UniProtKB/TrEMBL annotation:
It comes from the Bacteria. Residues 285-419 form the GGDEF domain. This is GGDEF domain-containing protein. It holds the Pfam family PAS_9. Residues 201-253 form the PAC domain. NCBIfam families: GGDEF, sensory_box. It comes from Bisbaumannia pacifica. GO terms for molecular function: catalytic activity. Its cofactor is Mg(2+). Transmembrane segments: none annotated. SUPFAM superfamilies: EAL domain-like, Nucleotide cyclase, PYP-like sensor domain (PAS domain). Residues 426-679 form the EAL domain. Residues 29-77, 128-173 form the PAS domain.
Amino acid sequence: MSPFHGDLGTLLDFPSLAICISEGDTLGGRLAYVNHAFERLTGHAREELLGSGCPLLDSEELEATHRRALIGALRDGRPFTLTLPCRRRDGELFHNELSLSRFCLGDGRRYLIGIHRDVSQREAHQNRLELAQAVFNNTHDGILVTDANKRIIDTNPAFTELTGYSREEALGKKPNLLSSGKHDSGFYESMFATVESRGFWSGDIWNTRKDGSQLIENTTISAIRDESGRIANYIGVFRDITQRRLNQARLERMASYDPLTGLFNREHFNTLLESQLVSLEYTQSGLAVLFLDLDDFKPINDNFGHACGDELLIEISRRLKHLMRANDLTARFGGDEFVIALTGLGTADKAAKVAEKVMADIIRPYQLDNGELVRVSVSVGIAFTSSHEISAAQLLDAADAAMYDAKQQGKNRLAQADTLDQRGAGQDAYTLVKTAFDAGQIELFFQPILSIHRQHIIGFEALARWRHPEKGVLGPQHFMDVITQSSLSLPYGRWLIDEAARVAKRFHVEGHEIAIGVNLSQDQIETGAIVESLASSRHRHDLRRPFLVAEVLESTHFHDLDLACGLLQETRNLGAQVALDDFGSGISSITYVSQLPLNTLKVDRTVTRHVEAREDRRQFVSGIIRMGHAMGLQVLAEGIESEGQLEALRLLGCDLAQGFHIGRPMAESEIVKRYLSPDTPPRFPLKRESRVCRV
C-alpha cells in the first residue's frame, strides 16, 4: 500500500500547490501520489495518473536544455527549482515552476517529490517588462523619467544621443538643464497644469543640447499616479524636429519677403516679374528694372558694426517704399543690393528719371541710433523692355551688367543697358565673366593643408582661377566680385561644390580620405543653396565619406544669424565641416565664433606674419589658438611661407597650416601628379587613414 494515502495524503493536499510524488529518484518513475491541485493543474484525473509517468515531465515533450538540467540536478542529489513550458491534457501551454527534490523512507524506498505552480501570469508580466525595457533602450525617441519633484531618475540611450547629456549627468537634475531660455515661466506653468488636469501635455519645446546647439523637440509629457491618485512620476518622450522646423521656417521666410527689410526677396520678386512681363503682350506699356548697389557700404559695417549696417539698410528700404507706386515691385536681393521693377512707363528715359529720384533720396544723410551721421551713394543699372518674350532672368542680367558699368564709371551714377534685342556679346565685366564661366574657363586650383603635428596633408582649399585665353591664368580679384554680387552667385556655388566632390572622389578611391574647402558667399548660405548642392553632389558622385569644408568669411554679414546657423548645421548633418575664414583680418566677431556651428578657425595671414620673430605677434596668435581650443575648434594658420613660421606655430599648439611653404595653389592635374604618383613623393605626403581627417 502507498505510504501517501490517509493522513499523509490529506496533509499534502494544499489547494494552491500542485504536488506529485513518483517512485525512484530518476525521471520517468511511476506516480505514487498526486493531490487535487495537481489534477486541476494538469487536467488529468488521479486514477489516470497513479502508476504512470508524470505527464509534465514527459521526456518527449521536454526541451533538451530543460531535460539536461533536470538530469544533472538529480545526479548531484540537490533540490532545485526550474521554470519550463508544459501542456495540460487539453493541449494548453503554460509556464510551470517546478521544485524537485529527492527523499528516502525508513524502509529504503526512494521517491521524487515535485511541487508545481502555474506562473504563466508572472512570466507574461516579466516578458512585458523585458519588452518595455527593450523599447525604452532601443527607441529613437528620447525618454526621461522624473520623480514627483521633477528630478530625473532615468533616461534612455536616445536621450543621450539627442541631447549630448549622459544618463549619469542627467540623474538628479531637473529637465530645465536643457532650457534654451526661449520659453518663459508661464509656458512651463501652463504645461504642467495641463499635465495635472488631463494627465498629459503634447507640443513643441525649444531646448538646447549640451554643446549649446539648438534642439527643437516634439514632446509628450505624461503623469503617472500611484494607488492613492497622487502623481508619482512624470515621463517625457520627445523626438528631434529641429531640422524639420528650420526647413519650414526657411521656406516660410524665403517664400515672399526679405527678413530684414520686409521687401520682396529674390525668389518672389522673380515670380512677380515674370507675371508682369507676360502682361506686356496685352498692355505693351513697357517695363523697366532698376538694379541698385550701394557704394562703399562695407566701411559702415566695419566702423560702426553690423547692427548699424542693418539699421541703414532698413532705412533705405523705407525710403524706397515711400518713392514707389503701389504697382511697382521693390526687392532686396541680399547684402546691399536692391531691385525695382517699374511698370507702365512707356520709355527707358522715364525709368531713368525715376532712378535719378531714387539716387537723390538715397544720398541724403542718415542719422543712426548711435548719433552718427552717415552718407552712402548708389550705382544704378537700368534695363528696359516692351517685349513679353524677354525673360525675367534676361532683364535682370541686363540691369545687373549695367549696374557694373555704373560702378566702373566712378560710382554714384546710373547706366542704361542696351536695348535687349540689340545687345551682343558685350564687353562689360559681367558679360565677360559670365561668358568665361559658361565656357569652362573658370577652374579650381588646390592648395594643400598640413596637419602640423602629424606632418601629412589632410585636405586642400579650392581656389578659383580664370584661365583667360589671351591673358593667361588670372586671380580672383579679376572676377570674383562680379560672380558673388550678381546672378552668377548661385550657379557658381553649385558648380564649386560639385567640382570639390568630383576631385575628392578621385582621392577617396585611392584610399585618401581628404576634404576640400570651398569659400561660400552669403547668398549661397542664406538661400539654402549649399544644403541642396551638397546633398546633390554627394549623391551624384556616390561619396560615402565626408568631403567638404564650407568656409565662411569673417566679414560675411548674415542678416538672419539663426537661419544661417541652422543651414550650416544642416551641412554638418550631411557630413560637411564648417570653417570661419580670414579670422583676425577685420573686426573679429566673437559672436560668429561662438554662435556659428564651426569646426575650424582659420587665422588670416596678416595675423601670422612675423610670428617667428615678434613676441607680441606670438602672444596674439597664442591667444587665438587657446580661445579656439577652449571652444572645441581646430585652428588653422594661413600664409605660412617659412620653416620658422611653421615651427613657431607648432610650439604654440596650432593644429593646421596652409601657405606657400607647404604648397602653392596647383591645378588638378598637378596635385594628382604630386600626391598620387608613386614616382614623385612630396615633402608632405597624404596620410592613409581608415577614419576621415578633420579639416
